[in-house]
């Protein structure tokens, strides 16, 4: 997290990718994030694990302001 402080996020992630490689796991507070900076690697990952990345996390705030998370942005993948 301290790597992200004081810089533009896209530039900080670029610098981290140069140092650690195109696939990184970041723990941003309580949120676990996988960052892929290579288009070829992203294509390969999403080809085999697309369902794992298809839905967004369920957030209470989105239930309140986005029609119980059923709007076009936050609706879950598949049948509701």
Describe the secondary structure blueprint for this structure.
Blueprint: H1 9-20, E1 23-28, E2 31-36, H2 39-49, H3 60-65
Antiparallel strand pairs: 1-2
Report on this model:
It is a single chain. This protein is of the alpha+beta class and 80 residues long. It has a domain at 9-55. The chain has three helices and two strands. The chain has helices at residues 9-20, 39-49, 60-65, and strands at residues 23-28, 31-36. A two-stranded antiparallel ribbon has the order 1-2. It is globular, with a radius of gyration of 16 Å. The termini are far apart.
Number of strands: 2
Pattern of helices and strands: HEEHH
* Largest β sheet strand count, sense and barrel closure: 2 strands, antiparallel
Radius of gyration: 16 Å
Tally the helices: 3
Q: What average pLDDT do the residues reach?
A: 83
Proportion in β-strands: 15-25%
Terminal Cα span: 35 Å
As an assembly, this protein is single chain
Q: Strand pairing plus helix content: what structural class?
A: alpha+beta
The general outline is: globular
Outline the low-pLDDT stretches: none
The largest sheet has its strands arranged as 1-2
The percentage helix is: 25-40%
Summary?
This protein has 80 residues and is α+β, with helices and mostly antiparallel strands. The chain has helices at 9-20, 39-49, 60-65, and strands at 23-28, 31-36.
